Amino acid sequence: MNSNQDNQTSSRLVGGRKLLVLALLALVLGSTAQANAMGGIMTTGTAVFGQSRHTYAVVVDRSSPGGYYIRVWLAHNRVMQLWAGEMRNGLFMMNYHIYRTMGQHWTLRGGADRTKFWRPDTAGELAMDPRTIPANTVGIISGYMAGRGRQTYKAWSATGNWKPACGNWWNVQFFPGNVNWQLFAQWQQWRRGGQPRPQSPKPPKPLKNITVNRHQVIVKMWDHAKQDGDIVDLYLNGKYLRRIKLTKAGSTVTLNLANGRHQFQVRALNEGTDKPNTASISVTGVVKGQPRQSWSLKTGQTTGMYITVQAPPKGRRPPPRVVARQPAGFYVSA
Question: What CA–CA distances, in Å, run from 126 to 49, 80, 129, 156, 182?
């Protein structure tokens, strides 16, 4: 082979390598653009709780309420997760959970969550004042926002059983720092309907209504699938009742109900480590309807049923049942 052929062969090899490099670069850039379009860190900044300062990040997650959630890194391998809430009495209410992660959580430098090592610590709420947000900004995401926070629950076991523990209010401030304006514009456009929204999940199947014959009924709930840390809030007639973490053994709630119709609701706070939030429920004293049912919920979804009480007044026994007796020697012939 002469030198001219060698040069031509080398040129083809170099050209092929260039094309391969360009193709790989285009693939990587395309994957990055697609990842940015689907989600990512929109904002990083500083959260001030009382006198302590912490780093926080706003993460785009279209499956979360509002299309995002907020993570605050606390001391001693603890992480606070915040979700967009609702307006109540002129304040923007947000719920939070704090977990002890044993170091198994992602940071701004990367990594991945290993939630099976996480342990629930406390839960509470933030009451943020929209009047503190500067004009033409979005609070916490692209603008300052202030309010107050307090603890409302504390986990009293490693499995996440909760007990009320209302604490004092403390001051809360969020100072946004770096904002990914491209992702912020995409998120705003998605919120306004400018981009195709992901398919909305099907509404949860409601529990079937039941009728009971007693004033005091016992409701039992348990995780009939894998025990994976599912947590639910219970409501009776629109009023908060209690929070439970579903286990195989189950938890019971005693309801003292007057005659009439009562609304019982279950709201999923998470989906554990094995989605979705699934469990079974049983009610005592059912005379009409299904005494045992089940649900399957996504985070934030609510299901429920109406419990109708048809019982004699307290202190009175129901009249004895009259059984017709057949006269002696009475029979029916074919």
Answer: 11, 12, 10, 22, 28
Considering all CA atoms of the chain, what is the largest pairwise distance in Å, rounded to the nearest integer?
125
DSSP assignment string, 182-239: HHHHHHHHHHTT-SPPPPPPPPPPPPPPEEESSSEEEEEEE-SS-----EEEEEETTE
pLDDT tens by residue, 286-321: 999 999 999 989 888 889 999 999 988 666 665 555
Looking at the DSSP bridge assignments, the partners of residue 211 are 288, 308
Dihedral pair phi/psi, residue 15, rounded to 5°: -60, -40
d(C-alpha 265, C-alpha 278), whole Å:
15
Report how far apart, in Å, the C-alpha atoms of 120 and of each of 71, 79, 81, 97, 219 are: 15, 10, 11, 8, 25
Question: In CATH, what number does 210-309 get?
Answer: 2.60.60
Res 319: pLDDT: 58
CA–CA separation, 280 and 294 (whole Å): 4
Summarize pLDDT for 192-216 with one digit per residue, the tens: 775 444 445 567 788 999 999 999 9
Taking only the tens place, the pLDDT of each residue in 132-145 is 999 888 889 999 99
- In the chain, where the domains are located: 40-191, 210-309
d(CA 68, CA 81): 11
Radius of gyration of the chain (CA): 29
Distance CA 54, CA 71 (A): 10
**Angle, to 10 degrees, between the axis of helix 3-38 and the axis of helix 181-191?**
50
